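does this look right to u?? CO-5-methoxybenzimidazolylcobamide version
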Amino acid sequence: MADLKALANAVIKGDQAEAVRLTQQALDEGTAPKQVLDEGLIAGMNVVGVRFKANEVYIPEVLISARAMKMAMEILEPELVAAGVDPIGKALIGTVQGDLHDIGKNLVVMMLKGAGFNVEDAGVDVSPDAFVEKIKSGNVQIVGLSALLTTTMSAMDKTIQMIRESGLACKVMIGGAPVTQNYADKIGADGYAPDAASAVDLAKSFLN
Ligand code: B1M
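got this back:
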């Protein structure tokens, strides 16, 4: 039986090789990709977050854990995506200007792909202009903005304003640790999702 606690520990320790090995092992043994994600990788990264907050670990350790999680996610992504069939909609997802956090955003991208969306990943530190250009050049129905810093949340506001001023008809959802439904309402987002799974539900609701 897959040892997802050991996988979480590999992420906590930043042991890239072990995180990759245990992810592959769990998948080979038939563990559901979503369970590997939730009980292994996310569980481990949550512990890192708590320790970072308590000043028990510092940025270098966090980066090493983040890299271990990213490497393991590369194996998981095709499995999560495999569940998808024909694209059910086109989404553009990015982390807003000034913000370099991408683990949660990458999860949203993966889960949306897994749910059957055609997803363009805009990357990190995406300016309002760049979002608007990408929406115009793709046939984008849903835009997802991610922010992990209280200082970059205002970039969501600016991005939404610019999208609305450009007359683009897409729906905009926002998410990330400091973001709330209240903030979404305040800045005129079409929706807020607290996690990647809820982002999928929200994105699907926009298609109706
Ligand atoms: Co940073 N960091 N970080 N960091 N970092 C936080 C966010 C922080 C809360 C840590 C802390 O102090 N406790 C804090 C922010 C404080 C604040 O503003 N309130 C912080 C800080 C201060 C900083 C720096 C400023 C540190 C410094 O330099 N002094 C700096 C900023 C750099 C920048 O962006 N300009 C910085 C840097 C970094 C690293 C580079 C070291 C690294 C990022 C690596 C990477 O992403 N590639 C990092 C990390 C890893 C973290 C923590 C520890 C973990 C974040 C994470 O990946 N969580 C984080 C502490 C924490 O969150 N507890 C912290 C796992 C991920 C799965 O969760 O991203 O929340 P999350 O995504 C969730 C939901 O939020 C949601 O779905 C996901 C779950 O399913 N979600 C969405 C996210 N986006 C969504 C979009 C949606 C819907 C849902 O729709 C579109």
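The mean pLDDT is 90. idk if thats expected tbh
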